[in-house]
């Protein structure tokens, strides 16, 4: 089981700039579990699970984002195991459909 699960909302210019793919790549490199998806309000939502220090590093990276993005705000709160169940079956980290 993962050490910590965080539910993160990222706002700014984070759609149409490769932000989801960047989050997926960064999470996989860090061997984190979870998912990322766009939201219709223009934000990006992610669930990040793994060792607390690694999840914290990933959240700090989300505050910067990929080169073309502009991150205005990152909301970070505790997440539960039920959020991880939204992943695609058999995947450690998923890119989910927009909600």
Summarize model confidence as the mean pLDDT: 95
Major sheet summary line: 5 strands, mixed
Number of strands: 5
Order of the strands making up the biggest sheet: 4-1-3-2-5
Can you walk through the features of this model?
Helices cover 28% and strands 35% of the residues. It is α+β, with helices and mostly antiparallel strands and 99 residues long. The protein has a single domain (4-83), classed as Alpha-Beta Plaits. The chain has a five-stranded mixed sheet with strand order 4-1-3-2-5. β2 and β3 form a beta hairpin.
Briefly summarize what is shown:
With 99 residues, this protein is an alpha+beta fold. It contains 3 helices and 5 strands; from the N terminus they run βαββαβαβ.
Tell me the layout of helices and strands.
Blueprint: E1 4-13, H1 19-29, E2 33-38, E3 44-50, H2 52-64, E4 70-78, H3 81-84, E5 93-95
Parallel strand pairs: 2-5
Antiparallel strand pairs: 1-3, 1-4, 2-3
Defining traits:
single chain, 99 residues, alpha+beta, Alpha-Beta Plaits, 5-stranded mixed β-sheet, 3 helices
